[in-house]
Design brief:
nucleotide-binding; two-stranded antiparallel sheet; five-stranded parallel β-sheet; 11 strands; Rossmann fold; alpha/beta
Length: 339
């Protein structure tokens, strides 16, 4: 893929990426798409790196469905959910009578992925014993179900993913170095959302259009204030967090303009006043003042968010004079929005 813009992609490839919410024009993002497309053309092991929520599983699916194994299964596995004592059983299956509760034979994830792709997410969570079993499978392209007499051939592509520094873990001995090299034939790094802030408007608009289709709504759009704070927020949960916040704003907002407040303010506005944790040994007037203060701030946050930061509208919703509401806002250190 030799391109400097998303629109310059091959239409088929571009449509595949759009369906997976891979939208953007930043250099880092386009580089990751280039890596994905290259990985789809070469049937070898691949390692996906990136923070939580950057789309590593979606990238793995893109590699699978754009590659030669598309007509065969894509089997995702969360390694963090596979304890050491059941890893081999889950991966390779077992024969009847392999252990006390093995009433009948059962195929494992490798057999289920035959001809297709096995995606191992959170690969860093595997114990050293489980890593040995996986390494042996990668070396021999064969597996032996627990309790079985012989080995079975496996025609499976392996894609692994992690949000950890696997290279550092291999140096420290927490992850087998030989397994790391086996997995790291093709490496793809998914950039965080804060590394591609210029993509936010494109991505947000795409998600809003998708929500409109999914929920049968007419055309809707984000309020102007949203684009300002979205570029300033760090997005620790990346695209997944963005999608969740936009969907919440989409469902809760009335009218064509979608109001999505900054996540921190959102959380504060939705906190209930919890008097169960009050120190009842304090002075009556002091306790009363604390509870009233908590109520005032919570109510103000709610009404300001509902009015998209417009104090005049917030005062109207609250049934108070604008000047009076403004004093309360200043008292609690809240910031007024644009008029």
């Amino acid at each position: 893929m030799n391109t400097h813009t998303f629109k310059a992609l091959d239409p088929t490839v571009r449509d595949a990426f759009i369906k997976m919410n891979f939208i953007g024009e930043s250099a880092l993002f386009l580089r990751s798409l280039c890596q994905i497309e290259k990985a789809a053309k070469h049937d070898v092991a691949a390692l996906l790196l990136g923070e939580t929520g950057t789309g590593k599983e979606l990238a793995a699916r893109a590699i699978h469905y754009m590659g030669s194994r598309a007509s065969h299964p894509f089997i995702p596995v969360n390694c963090g959910a596979l304890p050491e004592d059941i890893f081999e059983n889950e991966l390779f299956g077992h024969a009847q009578g392999a252990y006390t509760d093995a009433k009948k034979s059962q195929s494992g994830l490798v057999a289920q992925a035959q001809g297709g792709t096995l995606f191992l997410d959170e690969i860093d969570a595997l114990s050293l014993k489980s890593q040995v079993a996986l390494l042996r499978f990668l070396q021999d392209h064969q597996f032996k179900p627990l309790g079985a007499q012989g080995y079975e051939d496996a025609n499976v592509r392996l894609i692994a993913a992690t949000n950890a520094d696997l290279a550092a873990l291999s140096v420290s001995g927490e992850f087998r170095e030989d397994l790391y090299y086996r997995l790291n034939i093709m490496q793809i790094t998914m950039p965080s959302l804060r590394e591609r802030v210029d993509d936010l408007p494109l991505l947000a608009d795409h998600l809003i259009r998708r929500f409109c289709v999914e929920y049968g709504e007419d055309e809707r759009f984000l309020s102007v204030q949203c684009y300002t704070w979205m570029r300033q927020y760090s997005w620790p949960g990346n695209v997944r967090e963005l999608e969740n916040f936009l969907l919440r704003g989409f469902l809760e907002s009335e009218g064509p303009s979608i109001i999505v407040p900054p996540p921190r303010q959102w959380e504060e506005a939705n906190q209930q006043i919890n008097i169960s944790g009050m120190n009842w040994d304090t002075d009556y007037n002091e306790a009363k003042s604390l509870i009233i203060g908590a109520f005032e701030k919570s109510y103000l946050m709610h009404v300001l968010l509902k009015a998209d930061g417009n104090v005049t509208r917030a005062a109207r919703l609250a049934g108070k004079e604008r000047r009076s509401l403004g004093k309360l806002i200043k008292k609690h250190g809240l910031r007024e929005g644009e008029e």
